[in-house]
Design brief:
Largest sheet: 7 strands, mixed
Oligomer: single chain
CATH superfamily of the largest domain: P-loop containing nucleotide triphosphate hydrolases
Mean pLDDT: 88
Radius of gyration: 20 Å
Strand content: 5-15%
Number of domains: 2
Length: 337
């Protein structure tokens, strides 16, 4: 969540950030940034906001969140407030209408369009988010062998998923040549398996192990602590207007298949349609979020060169920021731009 808790800030020791703490860019070279990852509700956004806001000059945050790209999906994605945006520059947010499909390729194109602006910022840049594919695209680029989404193939994949279940669709994906299947391993994520089928059926290829593993600082929490945080977050989202926000989005033109499947929004839409109670929607949101957090952690451990910070859950956002700063996090080149 991009939230700044009310607390007395103490300045970070500049030495703790290590050499090259300021954002560096030279013409003809890629941008450089520090990357913070972790499962949803781990506290990465709040800590990164503090790091960026207390830098001198202030830093900027490039969001890597596949649902925060949608305008109007605010409560369920915990976007930064107007006050926070006034203190820190945010990029990667509000890139598309909620009724549009969106892809990793579109995300990368949007960030490339902002490259000169990012390069002109005097403070440090932090890439923060839980969508690992976006961060990989920033670091490694986006393979031209991956086609844009095809509505016809997506419909075919969704029909197969409905008829055969996730195991059946996964078996169809595994039947493609291993050279094209690459290093794909996210077999428990229906959305990723659907997209993998689309890509392979269109003649494309998935990523392989030759891609550079981005360097990052990763946050982890004990499972029960994370689950409790996820539950509290879900309760807060529904208490602060998620159902009403979803109803307004549906009334204004609806949601794309991707946006409609966003955790929290799918459940809120079911409440709007009278298909379930708020209480059941909250519980389903918690269940799906816990499963998503597990998939995120697996992806980060397999695909990132991460320095893991094991947190207890008792730390304040400020203390987490200090731990990140003291971790010796090094800048990563965003060669995909």
């Amino acid at each position: 969540m991009f939230l700044c808790p009310a607390m007395k800030h103490r300045p970070l020791k500049r030495a703790a950030l290590g050499k090259g703490a300021c954002f560096r860019y030279r013409s003809g070279m890629s941008l450089r940034a520090r990357i913070v990852i972790g499962p949803t509700a781990s506290g990465k956004s709040a800590a990164s906001f503090l790091l960026a806001s207390r830098a001198s000059p202030p830093g900027a945050i490039l969001s890597a969140d596949a649902m925060a790209v949608y305008r109007g999906l605010d409560i369920g994605t915990a976007k930064p407030s107007a006050a926070e945006r006034a203190r820190v520059r945010f990029f990667g947010l509000d890139l598309a209408s909620p009724d549009e499909p969106f892809s990793t390729g579109r995300y990368l194109a949007a960030v490339r369009a902002a490259k000169s602006e990012l390069a002109s910022l005097p403070g440090p840049l932090w890439v923060v988010g839980g969508t690992g594919l976006y961060i990989h695209a920033l670091v490694n680029g986006f393979s031209p062998t991956v086609p844009e989404a095809s509505p016809a193939l997506r419909a075919e994949a969704e029909t197969l998923l409905s008829r055969e279940g996730l195991p059946g669709l996964s078996a169809r994906v595994r039947a493609f040549p291993a050279a094209r299947l690459g290093a794909f391993h996210d077999w428990e994520n229906p959305r990723r398996v659907l997209r993998a089928y689309e890509i392979l059926a269109a003649g494309g290829s998935l990523g392989d192990d030759s891609a550079r593993r981005p360097r990052a600082v990763a946050l982890s929490l004990p499972r029960e602590v994370l689950k409790a945080r996820i539950a509290a977050r879900a309760e807060a989202m529904f208490a602060t207007g998620l159902v009403e926000e979803t109803a307004a989005l549906l009334a204004r033109g609806g949601l794309s298949a991707t946006a409609a499947g966003a955790i929290g929004y799918r459940e809120a839409a079911a409440v709007v349609r009278g298909e379930c109670s708020r209480e059941d929607a909250v519980q389903e949101t918690v269940r799906r979020t816990c499963r998503y957090a597990k998939r995120q952690t697996t992806f980060f451990r397999h695909r990132f060169d991460a320095t893991w910070l094991a947190l207890s859950g008792d730390e304040t956002a400020e203390e987490v920021a200090d731990k990140i700063a003291a971790s010796g996090a090094t800048e990563e080149e965003l060669e995909g731009l």
